[in-house]
Amino acid sequence: MCGIIGYLGQKEAYPVLLAGLERLEYRGYDSAGICTAHHGTLHLHKKKGRVENLKSITLPGTIGIAHTRWSTHGSPADKNAHPFLDQSKQFSIVHNGIIENYLELKEELRKEGVAFTSDTDSEVIVHLLAKYYHGNLQEAVLNTVKRLMGAYAFCVLKSGNQEIIAARNGSPLVVGLNGGENFIASDVSALIEHTRRVIYVDDFRLVKVTRQGVELSDFQGRPLPPSIKEVNWNIEQAQKQGYKHFMLKEIFEQPQVVEDSLRLNLSLRKDFSRLLIVACGTASYAGLVGKYLIEKIAKIPVAVEIASEFRYKEPLFSRDDLILAISQSGETADTLAAVRLARQQGAKTLGMINVVDSTIAREVDDIIYTRAGLEIGVASTKAFIAQLVTLYKIAYALAGQEFSGEGLVEKVQQTLSLNSQLKDLAKKYFAYQNFLYIGRNINYPLALEGALKLKEISYIHAEAYPAGELKHGPLALVSEETPTLAICPQDSVYEKTFSNIQEVKARNGKVIAVATQGDERIKGISDDVIYLPSVKEVFYPLLAAIPLQLFAYHIADVKGCDIDRPRNLAKAVTVE
Ligand code: F6R
After folding, report:
1. Number of domains composing the chain
2. Is any atom of ligand 1 closer than 6 Å to the C-beta of 338?
3. Do both 422 and 534 map to the same domain?
4. Residues 37 and 70: beta-carbon distance below 8 Å
5. Maximum Cα–Cα distance for the chain, whole Å?
6. Which of 188, 213, 237 delimits the end of a domain?
7. Cα 555 to Cα 302: distance, rounded to the nearest angstrom
8. In this predicted model, what pLDDT tens digit does every residue of 1-49 receive, in sequence order?
9. Ligand 1: distance of its center to the CA of 404 in Å?
10. What is the pTM of this model?
């Protein structure tokens, strides 16, 4: 959460930082700010709200740091916006993460006469720097990190110095190199416009960035050789290319994602007795589809644990288990902690990660990269699809069976033609306050995913249940005011789900059914039917995901919601 960026080069820093912040805005958008250094003075502009609020002015200088905030400590107010300055206005910092011992540090600094200007945990960093500065900025940063507990990536700018110093422990940080101009940022999307040559910074590392290059050291100040990598995606992927929102663009990229994912070459050793999947949110629902799939196809037991629960519940697992961490960003704090816990206790870990060289990708024993490409919309769509296809590949590989792809690319493409129907349905259903989503078996996780999509971007309350659970409580919610979205393709549990739809209809509930092309019977009892192409039972989740994404998207659009930046959320959840 929160995006940070630093720049130094020949260009005016302010517009460069502003453009970088716009790309990082998906990480948080409660406030934004920029600090530049020019002729021995720091210049600061920061504001509550979106990055665009910074556009009315500019600041001088060819070196600067910037921040876009997702609030943790302190409300989204001007005073809590980064960058922060020390009292002498010589030092400025931007921070992503949480300083857990900030209250204690604040107390200590207050006693020494520091007057704090914000309610944040981050501000202690800049005052510690000022306290420890005796002529060498790098030394001051090293002494500062010794005092900090928690997670952080922060950048430091000092008036009069032609350098940016950054430190990392637990929050992502990447350096971008482009000849006489260099960058440092939370992720590659902020730099990709300028360069594809990057250095991923590890935990407990300090980086000094100048116009000439980069010096890397550990927290004891010992120099380390930087490893330069080439990023394999480009600026077009970071642009909307005519789509109204990134989410819509990413939904429409899904046929390509399926095609790319099918090409994945997997070599899996089947030397484990149980697969234990750890993940959060949408990634955990992909994991749940994986459970149904792998148990059905490969006959290997699979457990799925929400990473935030796993890490705090004294989980039982053995060295015979394989821990599979699924994550788009590869930075989710809870999933990362689950991986670390599993490794500490001697279990083998495998990552299914989308962002190359992200923290989880670098920490797991083995890695499978999903092939979704850059996902910018906060609501995950194409990354989910890539996770599903990868899980199909794993299931068939573990079963020793051939998986050719079954014409899935064309079927996904065909399913996208439902877009205009879903646009119309959105106009019909957008005013409802509550929805139920039901599905059975392998489509139950899709009900969870569909409900999550609706909640997060349209702010409509939606609850998902295994269809068979309705009669154990949620049926009491059914009324004319609460429509039910039922995933009911012609599969082995069709008749059962069909009966559940009848139960809803008998109680005056409206039903939108997601069904198989040609199913006339379901039309007779449902208010609206969304038809999917006919596929083998196990592949329905892949197709059903698309109308569920489009339904949420168009409802949110009709309601005028900020689809790519839903309130209170951020793309990479790097805090607990
Ligand atoms: C929902 C969504 C989130 C993420 C979750 C895990 O649309 O995007 O629920 O799936 O925060 O994120 P990753 O996959 O980056 O670990």
Report:
1. 3
2. no
3. yes
4. no
5. 80
6. 237
7. 35
8. 799 999 999 999 999 999 999 989 888 889 999 999 999 999 999 999 9
9. 29
10. 0.83
